[in-house]
């Protein structure tokens, strides 16, 4: 695939994601409650990536929902990988 097409596609994808950010954040936060630790780990990773990419927009609009979800992940004593990963991404929020 030509790199100009790929970069255009990625820019369009980012715009679609931003337009639907409420649904994206809701889906990711719901995954924090998934019974499988890999899904919870991926959800924390997704929030971290969204925080990196969207920065202040995500922080201002969703901090009241994201921070409690990350704090709850801290209590995942059965899965230290998930527990450790939340701390890393909490710094990004």
From TrEMBL:
<keyword id="KW-0813">Transport</keyword>
<feature type="repeat" description="HEAT">
    <location>
        <begin position="24"/>
        <end position="62"/>
    </location>
</feature>
<dbReference type="InterPro" id="IPR000357">
    <property type="entry name" value="HEAT"/>
</dbReference>
<keyword id="KW-0732">Signal</keyword>
<dbReference type="InterPro" id="IPR040122">
    <property type="entry name" value="Importin_beta"/>
</dbReference>
<keyword id="KW-0963">Cytoplasm</keyword>
<dbReference type="InterPro" id="IPR016024">
    <property type="entry name" value="ARM-type_fold"/>
</dbReference>
<dbReference type="InterPro" id="IPR011989">
    <property type="entry name" value="ARM-like"/>
</dbReference>
<dbReference type="Pfam" id="PF02985">
    <property type="entry name" value="HEAT"/>
</dbReference>
<keyword id="KW-0653">Protein transport</keyword>
<feature type="signal peptide">
    <location>
        <begin position="1"/>
        <end position="26"/>
    </location>
</feature>
<dbReference type="GO" id="GO:0005634">
    <property type="term" value="C:nucleus"/>
</dbReference>
<dbReference type="GO" id="GO:0006606">
    <property type="term" value="P:protein import into nucleus"/>
</dbReference>
<keyword id="KW-0677">Repeat</keyword>
<protein>
    <submittedName>
        <fullName>Uncharacterized protein</fullName>
    </submittedName>
</protein>
<dbReference type="InterPro" id="IPR021133">
    <property type="entry name" value="HEAT_type_2"/>
</dbReference>
<dbReference type="GO" id="GO:0005737">
    <property type="term" value="C:cytoplasm"/>
</dbReference>
């Amino acid at each position: 695939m030509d790199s100009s097409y790929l970069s255009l596609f990625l820019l369009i994808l980012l715009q679609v994601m931003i337009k639907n950010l409420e649904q994206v954040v809701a889906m990711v936060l719901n995954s924090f409650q998934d019974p499988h630790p890999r899904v919870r780990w991926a959800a924390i990773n997704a929030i971290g990536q969204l925080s990196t990419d969207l920065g202040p927009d995500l922080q201002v609009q969703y901090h009241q929902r994201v921070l409690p979800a990350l704090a709850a992940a801290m209590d995942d004593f059965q899965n230290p990988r998930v527990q450790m990963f939340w701390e890393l991404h909490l710094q990004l929020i």
